[in-house]
Amino acid sequence: MKKNILCIVLTAILLCFCSTSVCAEEEKLTMNARSLNLYINQSFQLTVTGTAENLKFSSDNPNIADVSGDGNITAKSLGTTTINAESSGGLSAQCVVNVLNGVSPKDIVLSKQDITMKVGESFTIKASVKPEEADQSLTFTNSDNSVLRVDENGYIKALKAGVAVVTIKSKSDAVSKKCIVKVNAATEQYGANITVKGSVFTIAGEKKPNLTVELRNSNGFKRTKTDENGVFTISDVKQGDYALLAYKSEKDTTPYAKTQISAGTYNLNISCIINGSSIVVLYQQNADVESDIKELMLMADEVTLKSGETYDMKFYARPSKAVLPAVMGETNDEEIATVDADGRITAMSEGTAIITFSTLDGRLSKKCTVTVADSQGNKYSWLIITVETSVAFLLFIAFTIRYIRFRRQKDKEEFGTNEEDET
Questions:
Q1: 335 FRET partner, CA 20 to 30 A, in 140, 203, 207, 372?
Q2: Phi and psi at residue 126, in whole multiples of 5°?
Q3: Could you give the count of Cα atoms lying within 13 Å of 7 in the half-sphere of its Cβ?
Q4: Which residue stretches of 146-248 are H helix?
C-alpha cells in the first residue's frame, strides 16, 4: 500500500514538473528585431509579442541609443548597445543596436511598387537610395518563396500563382519599402518559344535582300537580316503583339516601313510587301506544332564543379516542337549545391548533391547529380604531391652523391693494393 502511495506521489511530482516546463517554454517574449543598423538621429519602433505584462524597456548605454517607454529607439552616437525588454513576470528579450556614421538614408525610390506577373515570367525591381550621397546598399527579402524568388539584385522569378511581398531594405533598418507582387497562373501555352518566318518584297514584287527586320514590343526586341531571297527568320519569340519594322541598314534608327503582327502559340509564317512606309501582310499562317511535352530533358545529367563555381542548366522538351513550360529546381543538400529559379547551380562545399528539376505542375521531372570538389583541398593535394616529389628528388641526389663517394673510396683501395703488389 505504501509503495502504491509513493508511486502516485512521484507521478504527480513528475506531471507538475513537466507541466511547469511546458509553460516555461511557451512563455517567452519575441521582438520584431534582434539586431538593428541605425544612423545618428534615426528612430525605430520595437514591438514585442508574448506574455508582456507591465513591459519595461531599457538601454545598456543611452548615450549610444536610447529607448522610450513604448519601445521607440533613437540613435544618439556612434557605437553598439543593447536594448532590453523585461516583463513583470521575469521574461526578457534583447535587441542589439549598431549606430553607424555617415550620410543616413532617407528614402528608397522604386521603379514599381505593385507588380503583376504570370508564372514563368521574370522582372527586376530597380531601386535607389535617397539622398544619392547615402550608402546605396540594398537587401531584398521575400514573404513567400513558394510564389516567387528574388535575388540580391532585385531579380524576381514567378513560380506559382499567389501574392508575395518583397521588402527592400537600405543599410539602415529604419528605411525600407515594400513591393506587392501578384503572380497569375500562366495559360497552358504561356512561354512557348515560337519561330517567325517571313519573306519581304517591294510593291513591284522585287525581293529585298540585306534588309534589317525587327520584332518589337514592351518586353524588348529581336533583330535579323533578310537573305538573298528576302527571307528572314527570328527564333525564340514569345506569343503576343509585335511591331514588325524594316530598316534599310543595321545602323538605321528610323524604320523604312512598319506594321503590326500578332504571334500566337504556334510558329508563324508570313509573306509581306513594302508599300511606301507600310508593310502589308499578304499571307499569314500559324504552323501547327505538337504542344504537349512528353519528357523534360536537361543539358547535363551529371555536373562536376569546384567550390564557388556555377553552372547554368538548360532545359529542352521532347518532342522538340513541344511547348516547354516553366521549370524549377530543388536540391537535396543546400550545403553542397544550391539552385536558383533560373536553373543556375552554385557549388558550395565538397560532396555530392542531387538536384531535381520539375515542371511547375509536377508532372515531369529530371534529376542532375552535382559533384563538388573542394578547390582548397585540391590545392593542398597538389602541394603535398609537390613536397613529396621534392623530398624524393633530394633523397635521390643524396643517395647518388654517397654512391659516388663510395665508388671513389673503393677505387682508391684497389689502386693502393695494386701498387703494393707491384712493389
A1: 140
A2: -95, 125
A3: 4
A4: none
